[in-house]
Amino acid sequence: MLQHPQIDPVAIAIGPLKIHWYGLTYLVGFAAGWWLGRLRSRKPWSPLNEEQVGDLLFYMALGVILGGRFGYVVFYNFDAFLADPLWLLRVWEGGMSFHGGLLGVMLAMWWFGRKTSAGFWSIADFVAPLVPVGLGAGRIGNFINGELWGKPTDVSWGMVFRTAPDSLARHPSQIYQFALEGVVLFAILWWFSSRPRPKMAVSGLFLACYGSFRFFTEFFRQPDPQLGYLAFDWLTMGQVLSLPMVIAGAALIVIAYRRNAA
Hints:
The chain is about 60% helix and about 5% strand. With about 260 residues, the protein is mainly α. The strands form two sheets. Strands 1-4-5 form a three-stranded mixed sheet, with no helix packed on it. β4 and β5 form a beta hairpin. It is globular. Its EC number is 2.5.1.145. This is Phosphatidylglycerol--prolipoprotein diacylglyceryl transferase. Belongs to the Lgt family. GO terms for molecular function: phosphatidylglycerol-prolipoprotein diacylglyceryl transferase activity.
């Protein structure tokens, strides 16, 4: 049995100014996305040049933060928002939804695709391999904050989280999600997109893989206490939101290759 390291959520404090680890993980994700995006922009088939990558990442950052926070409020904790509307602005306390952030990013890509005349799907296929780095960084932030821990377990790597309401060893589900949604997903998408693919295929693979990985890791993660299980004593909100992603991703891959063969 392991003990969760007691890490101060504030990484740097200078007088009243406090910089949280959670915010720094997002900064790392955006910085890595910018660097990798510039590498991809040098490919002859890239829809963007190096200068446009920075502009796109700015709009995507807004989409992630605004969409992720609003998504968490709507999907997971609307009652907390009604009780304390200012809680919506305290992003450093945690509480971001990937699915809400995805909707925000999709809106940003649609707008940028129109602005550059590149089109939504060209932008989406360009961006998809960059996203797992930010997802993985965010899961590390969850781990540092001691939030989104897993279900009780007797495995040797079970971890006691001081933020949990008991002293039970639990799955470090944040690390599971970091490994699958961050490392594995990045490796798959970076390899798959390393050469030209039919339009929508990279985006479809991202949706199918992320949805599958998230659905799987939800079996180890403690459901949000304000929601619990939605059905069958195992179905969570994360799984409900991920299943359509798997279906949509598979459909996009089939459509992409059928169009390419026509």
